[in-house]
Design a protein that fits this description.
Chains A, B: Its EC number is 1.-.-.-. 2 copies of one chain form a homodimer. Chain A is of the alpha+beta class. Chain A has 8 helices and 5 strands, in the order ααβααβααβαβαβ. In chain A, strands 1-2-4-3 form a 4-stranded antiparallel β-sheet, sandwiched between helices. Chain A is globular and about 50 Å long. At the A-B interface, helix 1, helix 2, strand 1, helix 6 and strand 3 of A face helix 1, helix 2, strand 1, helix 6 and strand 3 of B.
């Protein structure tokens, strides 16, 4: 397998930042489709792929989402070209005959609420990680947020479905002038060991 | 922000596969350190960075892990050069004065068990996504697995700590001859919409 060069690593990890302010520059629908058609290839347990996405882009949809996020996040959602609501389908296992056709994987989950919950949450979050890095790979900046009223977002955007909100993430072209200073990270030896 | 070229996208997403068989080729400790020092820059909520990792590499450590994974995963762990145990520190918020020093973020979590649990699980899983893609970016193949006895892995590897296991992931150089056929993914319109 080939490796990425330093410029690509910089785009994904070293120079990428969580953005709070956005340039007045739209994001094409075609790019949102390309984002999903990239991130979807990342691995999930039994290919369960529980992530469901609503890309909030119109003024009407933003007006529904803004009051449901924490006050400190409202201006970010209002000014971002797009804010994605990343949800998890709690009935993801009903899709396994299609997604994992070579065995009866549906039976591993059906009726086992604790395994359903943890699998949906773990794997939709993994897919959230793929989402953020795929967006950066395609030239977008991200502003992920977990400060919102999940019950209200569920009711407003996923009502009548089996989907629950995991987190939300603004997308666009960030304004570097509005970045905060970068927070420190752990050193390897503080949180890892080789045994 | 610059974009990645097709070769880099292929390495991360389009051509990368979950591996089940491994070449007899070791993984240097320096590369494991570089892996962490890359993935750690991915964003987490309030920079909480709950991921903790044990890289199981020695024969002695493999002998402790192999019996705790499902039968179908035992040969994979036995033959992989390294299997990482990705854990989440349920006391992650005690590190926030260091990781998020500009405000009292510790108080957002302390005593609120449900927020602690969901934040640790969501963000360590996000970091798991960064782990997989950073490993691929650095030329490694991955074999993530959630089929193991979590209580036993917790007791054996994280006993006496506040860390719980999230999932495990073998690392190395995959044997393409042992790949399964690739499973299908959703089309955009099946699971996404632009509103």
């Amino acid at each position: 397998m080939s490796t990425l060069d330093q410029a690509a690593l910089d785009t994904l990890f070293f120079n990428a930042r969580t953005h709070n302010g956005w340039q007045d520059r739209p994001v094409d629908d075609a790019l949102l489709k390309r984002l999903f058609d990239t991130l979807k290839w990342g691995p999930t347990s039994a290919n369960c792929s529980p992530l469901r996405i609503q890309f909030v882009k119109s003024d009407a949809a933003k007006a529904r989402l803004v009051p449901l996020v924490m006050q400190g996040n409202q201006e970010k959602v209002r000014t971002a070209p797009v804010t994605a609501i990343l949800g998890m389908d709690m009935a993801f296992y009903e899709q396994l005959p299609k997604l994992f056709p070579h065995t009866d994987a549906r039976s591993w989950f059906a009726g086992n609420e604790e395994v359903i919950r943890s699998t949906a949450f773990r794997n939709s979050s993994l897919q959230g990680g793929y989402f953020i890095l795929a967006a950066r790979a395609l030239g977008l900046d991200c502003g992920p947020m977990s400060g919102f009223d999940a019950a209200k977002v569920d009711a407003e955007f996923w009502g009548g479905t089996t989907v629950k909100t995991n987190f939300v993430c603004s997308l666009g072209y960030g304004d570097p002038a509005k970045l905060f200073g970068r927070s420190p990270r752990f050193e390897f030896d503080e949180v890892c060991k080789i045994v």
